[in-house]
Structures are given as C-alpha cells and as structure tokens.
Amino acid sequence: MPSPQHRRTWDLIPWLINGTASAADRSLAEAHLAACTDCRDEYAFQSRVHAGLDVDTRVVGEVRPAFDRLLARIDAEQAIDAGPARPRHLLRALAATVAIQAIGLVALATWAIERHRADDAPAYRTLSAPETLPARASLRFVPSPELSVGQLQRLLGERGLRIVGTNDGGTIYTLAPVAPGRADPDVVARLRAAPGVLLVEPIANASDR
Amino acid sequence: MEQTRTDDDPASGSATELDWLRAIARQDRAAFEQLYRRYHGLLSRFLSRFTARRDVIEEMVNETLWVVWRTAGSFRGESKVRTWIIGIAYRCLMKHLRDHPLEPTYGAGERDQEALHDPAPDESDARQAELRDWLRHGLALLPDEQRMTIELAYFLGQSCEEIAAIMNCAVGTVKARMFHARLRLRNTLPALGGDAPLPSHIARA
Q1: What distance in Å separates the CA atoms of residue B106 and residue A53, rounded to the nearest whole number?
Q2: Are B34 and B105 in the same domain?
Q3: Could you say which residues from 100 to 119 on chain B have a Cβ atom under 8 Å away from some Cβ of chain A?
Q4: Domain of B184: which CATH number?
Q5: Do B105 and B130 sit in the same domain of this protein?
Q6: 0.80 cut: is pTM over it?
Q7: B171 Cα to chain A: minimum distance (Å)
Q8: What is the pairing mode between strands A197-202 and A161-166?
Q9: pLDDT tens per residue, range A119-165
Q10: DSSP for residue A141
Q11: Residue B76 is part of which domain span?
Q12: Cα(B99)–Cα(A8) distance, rounded to whole angstroms?
C-alpha cells in the first residue's frame, strides 16, 4: 500500500518540474524523492517530456505587420459602429414616436365611438348620476410613453384585458376583461409590476355594473 | 533537482501589464501596442504547437488581442493579466480546433519541409529532434483537454491553479487531466522511458 507521501509526490511531479509547486509541496516531495525509485523514474520521464516541449520553438511572424492588420480591423469596426449607429438610433426614436401616435389614434377612435354612442344622453351629468363608463370597465390604466403598441398589446392580451375607453388626451385608458367571467383577481398587482406601467387603479364597483 | 519558476512576468511586470490594460480600456493604442508586442511571440509559439498554418496562428493571435482590446475594461483582477490573456487564447484555440477537426496539427508537413533545408544536425541536435518528434506524435494522441493541460504546464509553465482559471474548470479537473495524460504518454512513448513498469498504485488507477 503506497504511503500518502508517495501518492502526493507522484501528483506533484509536473508542478515540481515546471517550477510552480509551493515551497511546502516542494519540501515534501524532495524528501520522498530521495527515497523512492518509482517517483524518481517518473520525475525523469516527465523531465524528458518537459525538455522535449521546451526545445520545440518556431519562427514567429513579424509583429508590426500583424499589429497593423489588427489596427485596421479595429478601425474598420469602429467606423461601422460610428456609421450606422446614428440612423439606427433615429429609427428607434422614429418607431417609438409612431407607436405613441398609434396608441393615441386607437384611443381617440375608441373615445369617438363611445361618444357617438352617448350622443343620445344629456350633455350634462348631475352629481347624483353615476359616472358614465363603458360596460364592464374595471380598471384605469396609464402606460408610460415609452411603452410600444406591441408591448401594450402583449401586456393586455396576456392578462385578458382590452381598452374600452380613454380620456381626452389619450393618456388614461379604461380597461375591461375580454371575457367577463374570467377576470384575473390579481390583475391589478400584475399590471403594476409590469414594466412601462405608470398607474393601475380598479374602478369602484366595477363588478356591480 | 527541482526548478523554481522564473517568470518573464515578475510582480513589476504584472503591474505594468495591469496599467496597460487599464489604459487599453480607455482606448489607448500606445498601451495596446506595448501589450501586443509582449504577447505576440508568446501566443504565436503556443498556438503554433496546434497548427502549422502561420495565417491561422496570426489570426488567432489577433483574435485574442482583439478580445483584449474590446474587453479590457471588464478585467477584474481575479487572475494575473497573463493568465487572463492565455485564457482568451485558449478559448480561441479550442473554437478553432472544434471548427477544423480534420486540419493536421503540430505542423509535421511544414516542419519536414524546413528540415530539408537545414544543415546536417550533429548528434545532440538529432537527439533533440528525435525527442521532439516522439513527443509530437505522443501528444497528438491525447484528447484535446489532456494535451492542452500538458502544453499549458510544460510549454507555458502555468501552475495547476492558473490552468484551472484558463480552462475554466476546477483544480481537481486539471489534476485528473494531468494524471491521465501522464499515463497515456507513458504508454505511447516507450523511447522516453515510458515502458518502465508503473508504480503499483498508478497501474491500478
């Protein structure tokens, strides 16, 4: 049965040969090597491997031309980065503007339809009359201006909601469940936790209407 | 009997390289050239052990140092600069080996052509050449990870811990790879003394 020192020394041999073993490991190994033929043989074998790798050098290419080629690559990439970056940035800004306008148009159209439906109603509301809200409206919702149309659609669609009304400025939406019987009880908390949402408030007694 | 590591990169050199790296993070091309000059030879020699094609070697050297240029700001000092750069070179090399598995390595063809024009070697040179050739064939039979462990330890002089950082693996994995690489080399390189009977505990491993 080999001693722990034997196994330890055998494992240390490569690191003794390449000079990276710690002083403590070196000391342990030297003591064992002096007394162990097997470890000395292995040490000699690994020394020959090390020496064989050490002599194997190759002519290295010239530095300056290689470095110039790398600089040319870096220059080219920086030129590309600097070039299309501005149009891409403008495109993103343009896309965001279009998205906000689209949200406004959708909201405006919804509002116009609702107003048309309400034309038969008196042009005033008494304090005792209930607030006129679209059927099944359950939430007031204010998105961030940065929220795109696609993000808004996904946000509402995943939670089973749709826009049923808006304010005059198109900044506050009234939401209702797509399927009234399947409203998510935690929808307010979920919407509030979503990015791009500034405000979510349940409409009082919405479920009564 | 044992060697003590004599780094080309002592503490002061490491500090210099760290300064260069910080300057490179600020897009300082003079510092980048200094670092490039220091590593071009080292990386070229290391990579030339895996391919004979000089264009590929330069491509990998430049790919490595291009990554250094792009990511110098992300260096957190968790290892030496040298270890970090060799780690990048290692990943470039492994990607090349994966993408070109059939490409002959160790440059036998080119080296043989060069040998035709060499003056007749004396006995000592002949022994060195024979040793080198034996090793080239023996190492070529090792799995890439084992061969890389041997090269990093013996050719670049990296410690076990540094190799673990370079290969992004545990120290124990490096030890295991070194262990198996040594066994295989003993079996495939009898001319180096590998035909000697193995110690009993090793033979059972």
Answers
A1: 12
A2: yes
A3: 107
A4: 1.10.10.10
A5: no
A6: no
A7: 13
A8: unpaired
A9: 555 555 555 555 556 667 788 888 877 788 888 888 888 888 888 88
A10: E
A11: 9-117
A12: 38
Contact B27, B85 (CB under 8 A): no
CB B96 within 8 A of CB A16: no
Q: Do A21 and B179 touch (CB under 8 A)?
A: no
Does B20 lie in the same domain as B91? yes
CA distance A195 to chain B (A): 29
Of B6, B49, B192, the CB nearest to A48: B192
In a domain, B205, yes or no: no
Where does a domain end: B74, B89, B117? B117
Residue from B155, B196, B180 nearest A43 by CA = B196
One domain for residues B14 and B78: yes
Q: Check if the beta carbon of residue B35 is closer than 8 Å to that of residue B20.
A: yes
Same domain, B32 and B102: yes
Contact A136, A114 (CB under 8 A): no
- Provide the domain count of chain B: 2
B182–chain A nearest CA distance, Å: 8
From residue B109, give the alpha-carbon distance in Å to each of B43, B53, B105, B113: 21, 10, 9, 6
Enumerate residues 131 to 150 of chain A having a beta carbon within 8 A of any beta carbon in chain B.
Answer: none
How buried is A73 (Cβ within 10 angstroms: 0-12 exposed, 13-18 middle, 19+ buried)?
middle
Mean pLDDT by 10 residues, chain B (205 residues): 48 77 95 96 91 90 95 90 95 88 54 47 70 84 93 95 95 96 87 51 45
Beta carbons of A11 and B175 less than 8 Å apart: yes
A62 close contact with B: CB closer than 8 A: no
CB contact under 8 A, A67 and B134: no
Nearest CB to A53 within list B37, B154, B194: B154
Q: Is the same domain home to B109 and B15?
A: yes
CB atoms B3 and A18 under 8 Å: yes
B150 touches A: beta carbon within 8 Å:
yes
- Inside any domain, residue B204: no
Domain co-membership, B16 together with B80: yes
Number of A–B residue contacts, CB under 8 Å? 134
Residue B79 sits in the same domain as residue B131? no
Domain boundary among B117, B147, B168: B117
Contact residues on chain A for B175, CB-CB shorter than 8 A: 11
The pLDDT, as a whole number, for residue A209 is 43
